[in-house]
Amino acid sequence: MFDALLLSLAALPAALGAVTTVSVSATASHPIPTTLFADTTAALNAWVPVGASATISVIADPTPLSSALPNSLVLTTPPNAGAQGFSNTGFWGMKFEKGLKYTASLYYRIPTLSARPAASTLTLALRAADGSVLASANVKMTATTWTQVSVVLSPTKTPPSTANTFTVTTDGGPAGIEVHFAMLSLFPPTFKNRPNGMRADIAQTLADIKPAFFRFPGGNNLEGQTPATRWQWNATVGPLINRPGRMGDWSYPNTDGLGIYEFLTWCEDLDMEPFMAVWDGFALGGTSVTGAALDPYIAQAIDQINFVIGDPKTSKPAALRASLGHPAPFKLNYVEIGNEDFIGNAASTVQARWSAFHNNLTATFPQLHFMATSHQNSPVLTPTPEIYDNHVYQTPTWFATNSFMYDNFPRNGMRFFEGEYASTSTNSSNLFGGVSQGRLTFPTVSASVGEAAFMTGFERKLLRWRSSSMQLTAFRKRGYRIQRIIRSPSRTRERVPMDAQLGWIRVTTAFRSVQHLSLIISFHSAGSVYKSSSYYVQQLFSLNKGDEYLPSTLPDSSTSATLLWSVTRRNATSGTEVIIKISNRATTAQAMQFVLPFSGAASKSTAQVISGNGGDSNTPEHPNLIAPVTVTVATGSTFNYTAPAVSVTVLVVGVTGA
Question: What is the CATH number of domain 14-31+557-656?
């Protein structure tokens, strides 16, 4: 009976056409899983001399700050030049706000104190676009060896423009001066005031989704173009001056300033389940490591996991974690072995790599669940994976017509983790082409509606699989970078802070600098965050998760279907609620009738609706064009609802007798 499609027609206005009647079962078929949801000339980009006589350059320092940071910025001023120095313009600007505390930090050394006063003053300042000083601090500068300076700067006003700068100046006196600088940074207040933490506005935007888990350090960010440039947990932990960074997989440097410890503490701050990946011997450039050559990489993966959950008394990596202030283990249940082991020639070696990692990691950590990242049964892996990580980038139409995709998978207990998915293009034959070939710059309403249709299948799929033979987790790629405000010249190229979760997009009203298109949020590096229609869909689904799936009339599973839904039940503090999620990709409104099998149902309920023209997007120019609208719906044990054209609806009905 669960497979039956029960439709009926009702005498509603003819303009709405046929009415889809949804009959809901009172008996839950299954619980809803709780896991649903970083050359020296280039280094001076954004660095500008201050004062007519100042010169700045980046050199391979003969006495570097650390082996990880071999370069330094050298400031040279002639005699009697007055205040001279340098400024940083940020990533297309810096947003300063009155009263907020900005932490400025740098290391300096003066190669020699001869022929000059025994002490000079170093001035660190925040300046507005007109040159006025918003905040400043003076520090005596006397050291010939590397010395850290850290000050807190609080602007006295909020400037109208974001074309502001961070400046460092000094007076070399009658002899002039040469000063070497390294590891310069300027942090605004961070999320939950974590040292080296997340940009507060971006982190809060993601926190507002209430994500259940966080996958790190990524997909492609994990792999490296070669084994030497792979992500390595131990190179991302500890003092920033000891993190060497590396060339990232998308052609820009990653500083790894956002490392494994920051990822894990952020998971705690947002109450997210960590889904951590370990490198498994395949690099994006095509290199595969197999056989005994894998042994050191397996050992590194074991150390990585021990850093997270090991006992400090018996494990050096765990002792390192404890020394950072976290003696207790972090939460960890899921570990992903590699990323996208179907790319290029990865599939030809994945069996050897999978078995080597899986067998060793399972023997060491039998309590953990390990995920494979190749295509299911292509090739067939031994040992059989418990969970596969599936990634889908497709058109809005594909998502809308593949809500039933997993229903056709074997019912053998295999579980699937939808690790990445997004509507990226309207062109199915060139999904990753440019905008002129159909690529979406920002998520559109149609794209978000298609994703919502796909997500209703995440809740419904267990219905036809009879209880928990399949457990599907869901995730939507988040497009954000966690960054310092300034650019630093401490490396051979500018230290662009790394992107977490693969993609990012930087936007201004003048132009867009894009690394990955169509992500759920975008941000202006000078202080604005833009929520897409897909962000709001993710938020509505996340904030309205049910505890149990309620079988109901099945939607049309054909490719021509435009109306898809799921029904769940939640036991809230205020009573039992039935949650109905509807995706309507049709360009016309569609009438529906719901039949609830409960003795009592609220006469009025609240629905949140996202709708608009299919091609509409939230952009920096129009950031609030698409947003959920709350409406009151007349409900009862049987009630009618009209799903607006190109829309997503989440309707919550209070019931009794459930």
Answer: 2.60.40.1180
